[in-house]
Write a structure and sequence with these properties.
Strand content of chain B: under 5%
CATH topology of chain A: 434 Repressor (Amino-terminal Domain)
Order of helices and strands of chain B: HEEHHH
Structural class of chain A: mainly alpha
Number of helices of chain B: 4
Oligomer: heterodimer
Number of domains of chain B: 2
CATH superfamily of chain A: lambda repressor-like DNA-binding domains
Shape of chain A: globular
Distance between the termini of chain A: 7 Å
Largest sheet of chain A: 2 strands, antiparallel
Strand content of chain A: 5-15%
CATH class of chain A: Mainly Alpha
Radius of gyration of chain A: 11 Å
Number of helices of chain A: 5
Helix content of chain A: 55-70%
Order of helices and strands of chain A: EHHHHHE
């Protein structure tokens, strides 16, 4: 799964830390999602989408391998 | 995130405070036949009916202490407990069960008699020990990658 988390974060001027605090996860989790090492649950994906005020599909996209 | 079956974060420290003296006591008992005098049981063993040899409960105390300490260390919540941490915990647990039984299988094939009994004594605690080591290693790994990533995005 691909994601635009890093771009969205830059657009909203949020650090990984701030984003992690907002949705109640560890910094490492945000980092792991950005680098594609961790695929978040639906709940977490929805929370992230809520922070950026965009639909989930705008932030997370399926890969050819998914 | 709601997590089931975990102790509060602060219990990890309590776990270490129980584990360290217990492991010292356990080794002292196993290899130096050290017994705490006040744990002597004047009557025969309560485990073996009819046994009249006086017992000492030092090894029992060490064993229970090790189990309690290790369980608290292993299953206390992280400071920030989220779903990825939960997944790492499960992966570490599976890994430790595999590793533990692999080692036990090797021991079954290579160790005999009383030495095997010693292996079994260790085996009672190694699942938790290996789990703790593996889990901390996984968390340490993600922290390192995170730190590197932060550095690379700063510059």
């Amino acid at each position: 799964m691909k994601n635009r988390l890093k771009v969205e974060r830059a657009e909203h001027d949020l650090s990984q830390n701030e984003l992690a605090d907002r949705i109640g996860v560890s910094r490492q989790t945000i980092n792991s999602i950005e680098t594609g090492r961790y695929v978040p649950s639906t709940i977490l994906a929805l929370k992230l989408a809520q922070v950026f005020g965009k639909p989930v599909e705008h932030i997370f996209m399926l890969d050819e391998t998914d | 995130m709601k997590t089931k079956w975990l102790f509060p974060h602060s219990y990890r420290l309590i776990g270490w405070l129980i584990f360290i003296p217990s492991v010292v006591l356990g080794f002292a008992n196993l290899y130096a036949e050290f017994n705490l005098p006040f744990l002597a049981v004047p009557f025969g063993s309560w485990k073996i009916p009819g046994d009249t040899v006086p017992q000492n409960l030092t090894d029992e105390l060490a064993g229970i202490g090790l189990i309690t300490g290790l369980l608290l260390i292993a299953f206390s919540r992280e400071k920030v407990e989220d779903e990825m941490i939960g997944q790492l915990r499960l992966e570490a647990l599976q890994w430790s069960v595999y590793a533990n039984y692999l080692v036990l299988a090797i021991a079954i094939l290579t160790v005999y008699d009383m030495a095997f009994f010693t292996v079994l004594i260790y085996n009672m605690f190694t699942v938790l020990l290996v789990f703790i080591a593996r889990f901390r290693w996984l968390i340490f790994g993600t922290t390192i990658i995170h730190a590197r990533y932060e550095k690379s995005t700063e510059s």
